[in-house]
Specification:
Blueprint (H helix, E strand, L loop, with lengths): L11 H8 L9 H22 L3 E2 L1 H7 L10 H10 L3 E3 H9 L1 H14 L9 E3 H18 L10 E3 H7 L7 H14 L2 E5 L5 E5 L12 H40 L2 H62 L3 H27 L4 H31 L18 H19 L1
Antiparallel strand pairs: 1-3, 2-3, 4-6, 5-6
Pfam family, one: WHD_CHMP7_1st
Keywords: Coiled coil
InterPro entries: CHMP7_WHD, Snf7_fam
């Protein structure tokens, strides 16, 4: 651990007590709790600093050796960490990741027979496993997932382990970390046609569990073929350069036969390079087409999700095409009524004093005129005939009853019209 040791590690007196055997908790609870906490923390920090989640009691003794002192009662510490679930045996961890029923059986048998008695029993520090899994997943996303058009989720396990050596100390820790990612549903493990271990990471756009398919194995095989072609092309390029160099050397020496022989070698190498490059380009185009197909599916899934969300929102809000048409019709009706009201306001509001009163007065006037004319006609019938000669003006004009009636009617008509 080196510099990761706590300050108390340099204190001989305190470390002498911490290195001593742990007494039973019912005898000295303070001593028990202090040593359990100290050594549990030391084990966790050592696993983190060593980048190794797997350890044994013998490994811990070598890590925590202090001169001629070794920590006592490490088996008690281990049993406590097993009881609280901070660690588990490697066998149980493997069983848990293969078969949950088997894991329960092994854990039960381990608790019966006391797995802590064996200093060679391998244990797994679970919090460190989770930390390593987080780091490994982040490393994949930052280094591999950026190349989205080349199906980056399919990775050769051996190559990925080489790239992750700055995160994990050895293959065993790498396998334990992969098992954690498998349990999380972030990775599934498949194999190629020749038995190579291949990883398939979760595609963020995919739903449900990760499934390994034959097409995934084919993608790996194509990548392997492309890698082989790259090496072949580089080898042939070096061969062509060497042949050209040798040909120039023999030309300077005047040996045209040897020069021609090396030039033919160069020509064959260049022809092979062209052929292999064509093969490489075809495989590359297939890979890109597969990547674009995945992207198109993702876009289509987004469209579907958007359409479903839009429909659900309309339904939740109670909006439909029929209701929209009905609302628009109501708006048209309301606008028509408003227009009629506006026209009526612009035309002016008729008043009783002008229209209705005029009509009533006109009717009354006509009735009066008709009645008066009838009375006048009756009066005229009773009067004697008018003399044929015009009366003398000396006596003054005499007004007849008809003239008086006519004047009375005219006066009433005048008053009515003035009143209006």
């Amino acid at each position: 651990m080196g510099s990761n040791f706590p300050e108390v590690w340099a204190d001989d007196e305190q470390m002498s007590g911490l290195m001593s055997m742990i007494k039973a908790r019912d005898v000295n609870p303070n001593d028990y709790d202090r040593k359990i906490e100290f050594w549990s923390d030391m084990i966790a920090k050592s696993c983190d600093s060593e980048r190794n989640t797997v350890f044994t009691i013998d490994i811990l003794k070598r890590r925590f050796r202090r001169g001629d002192q070794l920590p006592g009662s490490l088996n008690v510490i281990i049993q406590h960490m097993l009881d609280i679930g901070e660690i588990t045996t490697l066998d149980d961890y493997k069983a848990r990741n293969q078969n949950w029923l088997q894991r329960g059986y092994r854990s039960f048998m381990g608790s019966l027979w006391g797995a802590t008695n064996d200093n060679q029993t391998e244990y797994v520090h679970l919090p460190t496993v989770k930390k390593h899994a987080d780091n490994m997943l982040e490393f994949f996303r930052s280094e591999y997932a950026v190349d989205d058009d080349m199906l980056p989720e399919i990775v050769d396990s051996a190559e990925f382990f080489e790239e992750c050596k700055h995160l994990v100390a050895n293959k065993k820790t790498y396998d334990v970390t992969l098992a954690e990612l498998v349990n999380r549903g972030e990775v599934t493990i498949g194999s190629s046609k020749i038995g190579e271990e291949i990883l398939k990471f979760r595609d963020n756009a995919a739903y449900g569990p990760i499934k390994w398919t034959e097409s995934d194995a084919s993608v790996h095989d194509m990548r392997r073929a492309m890698s082989k072609l790259e090496h072949e092309i580089k080898r042939l390029e070096m061969k062509a350069k060497k042949a050209e160099k040798d040909a120039r050397l023999y030309i300077r020496q005047g040996n045209k036969n040897h020069a021609a022989q090396y030039l033919r070698q160069k020509k064959r190498a260049l022809k092979e390079i062209e052929s292999k490059d064509n093969q490489y380009q075809r495989l590359l185009e297939i890979m890109r087409q597969l990547g674009r197909t995945k992207q198109n599916k993702q876009i289509l899934d987004v469209y579907k999700a958007g359409a479903n969300a839009f429909k659900a929102t309309l339904q939740r809000q109670g909006i439909s095409a029929e209701k929209i048409d009905e609302t628009m019709d109501d708006i048209d009706d309301a606008m028509a009524v408003a227009e009629e009201i506006q026209d009526a306001i612009a035309a002016g509001v008729p008043t009783l004093a002008t229209d209705e009163i005029n009509k009533d007065l006109e009717a009354e006037l006509n009735a009066i005129l008709a009645s008066d004319n009838s009375e006048v006609d009756l009066m005229i019938k009773d009067l004697p005939d008018m003399p044929s000669e015009e009366p003398s003006t000396a006596a003054g004009p005499a007004r007849t009853s008809k003239e008086t009636a006519d004047n009375s009617i005219a006066a009433r008509l005048k008053r009515l019209r003035e009143a209006v």
